[in-house]
Amino acid sequence: xxxxxxxxxxxxxxxxxxxxxxxxxxxxxxxxxxxxxxxxxxxxxxxxxxxxxxxxxxxxxxxxxxxxxxxxxxxxxxxxxxxxxxxxxxxxx
Length: 93
Fold this sequence. Notes:
By secondary structure, the protein is mainly α.
């Protein structure tokens, strides 16, 4: 998962599609909401990189709804993802 996140944040293609799903399962088992939200963000960025902006925006909106105020990094990242997905999904005409 760490390698996949590193590649994604560096702008390189993710080679392991299931890495972020494993993070999500781990977070559910540990009952850690922050890790689960981080996994959703990573899945959203991966979706955007793969050309699925609707899926990316959906994940960003989920994080925005579920993230609490003290988690500013995740809220800001989700807002950026939502706006990038919106722009990517908008017609270029």
